[in-house]
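User: Assemble these into one structure.

Assistant: Restating your components, then the assembled model:
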Amino acid sequence: MMAGMTDDDRVFKALADPTRRFLLDRLFERDGRTLTELEAELEMTRFGVMKHLRVLEEAGLVVARRSGRAKLHFLNPVPIRLIHDRWIDKYTERRVSALAELKTELEEEMA
Amino acid sequence: MTSTGETTVTTQVYRVHIKATPEAIWDAITKPEWTDKYGYGGRAEFDLRPGGAYRGLASESMRSAGAPEVAVDGEVVEADPPRKLVTTWRMVMDPEMAAEGFTRLTWEIEEGQGGVTKLTVIHDLEGAPKLAALVSGEMEDMGAGGGWSWVLSDLKTLLETGKPLEG
């Protein structure tokens, strides 16, 4: 049985939406933006942008911090790194080692 | 602020949730026997009071590859164990990054629910574009490591499993 939503589930769910990926791309270009700045990039109501930012914050992909009177949104790449390090590496390593084995076998056949 | 109302922010923010106590995370950041076990490795030396010295020594493998003894230096600005550590931070291994001068690094540790602690790293990199590229992980393909994301991912693995990622 799956035990509720995990951190990884929240990340994949957040990334499954094109608007949210667009917001992350804008923060990747220039980090630490206000809601008003992000809203200007999208044909969407302020409320709609807030809802998407909330999902990104819950997944840990965006961290909001106060700077004076402004609330700035920062891209947090750590959750993606965690998935990369724990999940994707596992499969790429297996593929690489399978290729290495194939190379050894073929070379042995040729010898 | 520019005329278009855009803010230029040179701060990078990284956050990770770790199943460990705030004290364990504090020790992993400040104690040399811990700092040697994850990320770039190397023993850290802190004099944990305002104005106290901070040195991040190069790991053994870095030194055998020709690195100097000290990789990072700085000064403690604020030490509030196990909640907050602020230091100045200068990479001295690379002459160009050393010339960019001191940046400001903040570690925030916040106890959450269910034994999970929130760790946030705030690196203010004003005037240090080269160091900003390094710590963002942009230079990973050049063998410079994956920056703060990689360090925090490795720290999480170490504290939760007792072993670092590549261990």
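The mean pLDDT of chain A is 88.
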